[in-house]
From TrEMBL:
It holds the Pfam family PAP2. Keywords: Membrane, Transmembrane, Transmembrane helix. It comes from the Bacteria. InterPro entries: PAP2/HPO. The chain crosses the membrane at residues 26-46, 66-84, 96-118, 147-164, 176-196, 202-222. This is Phosphatidic acid phosphatase type 2/haloperoxidase domain-containing protein.
Length: 238
């Protein structure tokens, strides 16, 4: 479960620690993240193309009317694939890296099972998507299926909580936490602004991501490996 201890004070050596974390096991992180995404998309599109029954249309609620259609939100929507790569990049020990991979795999697998058992899609918004090339390609591939819960939002929230704890462990300035939260909120907003999801999808996805983050985070897993601790201590003494 997440550490509820007092947040670590801002550290003068956090940039050094951040660099050490990034280069630690970098090849395993790069290959593992890439392989995970390839396997995920294969499973995702299989479920999308082979639903167990006809998709049910998700209803809109009052919150949907507060978020206008914004084609310019597409780059923010696509930012997720960079964002979810940040937590593994900053993990400083093998155990935590494997734990993160296992839990995010369980998160994605659970949502894919829901998508297959209870396929859903967003309403027909009556928009000529050919007027929006980027979104048109996305709609053609995704067909706005696998809507509930929003796995886009779930993985963003899951990553945000892991990043929060990793940044807290490093003792970064508060501004970094603000940016982290802002990116997560922006990605969530983009799922509604691009009409890829409705509010019920996003709200449920956020809940799923938060629950999986709460279950997966442990203080011991977030610490540096012994080798990195030694290297950080050496950098402080020079």
């Amino acid at each position: 479960m997440p550490d509820r201890s007092v947040p670590r004070a801002v550290s003068a050596t956090w940039p050094t620690e951040l660099g050490l974390r990034v280069v630690h096991l970098w090849l395993l992180k790069a290959v593992g993240t890439t392989l995970f995404m390839v396997l995920f998309f294969q499973a995702y599109f299989y479920v999308l193309q082979h639903p167990s029954r006809a998709p049910w249309v998700m209803p809109e609620i009052w919150l949907d009317r507060l978020v206008p259609f914004t084609p310019a939100a597409f780059p923010v929507y696509a930012l997720l694939w960079v964002y979810v790569s940040l937590p593994p990049a900053l993990i400083g020990n093998l155990r935590a890296l494997l734990r993160f991979g296992a839990w995010v795999g369980l998160l994605c697998g659970s949502c894919l099972l829901v998508f297959w058992l209870w396929p859903t899609r967003v309403p027909d918004f009556g928009i000529d998507w050919s007027n929006y090339p980027g979104l048109s390609a996305l709609k053609g591939i995704d067909a706005s299926g696998n809507a509930w819960p929003s796995l886009h939002v779930a993985t963003a929230v899951f990553s945000a909580w892991w990043l929060y704890r990793l940044l807290q462990q490093m003792g970064v300035p508060r501004g970094w936490h603000v940016v982290n939260a802002g990116v997560c909120v922006a990605i969530t907003w983009s799922t509604l602004a691009t009409l890829q999801h409705v509010a019920l999808d996003a709200l449920t996805g956020a809940l799923v991501g938060a629950v999986f983050a709460w279950l997966s985070l442990t203080p011991a897993d977030l610490r540096l490996s012994q080798r990195l601790q030694q290297r950080l201590a050496q950098s402080r003494s020079t």
